[in-house]
Target: Phosphoglycerate mutase-like protein 1
Amino acid sequence: SLIDWHCAPFLPFFNSCYFPLDVVEEEDLPSPIPLSGGALWSFRGGCSFSPAACLSVSFPRFCIADMDIIPGPGLFPAHRCKTIHVVRHAQGVHNVEGDKNYKAYLSPEYFDAELTPLGWQQVDNLRKHVVASGLLERVDLVITSPLMRTLQTAVGVFGGGSYTDRVDGLPLMVANAGNSGRGAISSFNSPPIIAAELCREHFGVHPCDQRRSISDYQFLFPAIDFSLIETDEDTVWKADVRETTEELAARGLKFLKWLWTRTEKEIAIVTHSGFLFHTLNAFGSDCHPLVKKEICKRFSNCELRSMVIVDRG
Model:
């Protein structure tokens, strides 16, 4: 095989990031990091949340191809590259208490946690961004984790408008799914959305990370494709066994390997903080340390980052 996973064949390159910001200072804008033969760009500054503001930052696609040679621009044939737009789900009810006290994640009250009202505001603002930037028209496929908060985020950001029975076919989401208080969401002019177990959050112990039956989801999200999921009930979540970070990272690499087999060239992925952190930490060791930091830093709720994955053969 041309793919040797021990040599990290998929190298993420940052293309753009969506940050919800209160204020954008001049010193927060991208600045070049001089390197022999090229430049790396880094986004400096924090990203405090504001539902009303956002910033889209573009990064040239430069990376260190080999730490044993002088760093410079990387050049790859287009057919060996695939653009991914990675989104962490919007704020869930479990995040509100869990951010204050980690033990709250153990509460059965947060089983398959849904979005908060603030989470839906985050979804609305990210949707405005993907529409205004033209990203929604470019995305060929959306892949989502099959949990309530990611399904709601996926259809809210990448779905159609309000659902009309006679025109739109099946809705992506029925009215008030997951106590959303929202009307039904249309699948009209939406990219296909499929659910995949491989990009779920840590398996086990935390009830918020346990999914309900696929039959339930199919009723609530009729136009989402759940055919890749093999079992109706959640057989991978165990009440007393938490997936290790090593197992999660291995699952993340398996997901990216599967992603590479897809024919679509521009794919959006809606997933979870832990999954992203441990998966992306496997990459960037052959890049400038600041690029590694950009790749691996934790996602905020409803943050979008765009990257390119490359088959280096």
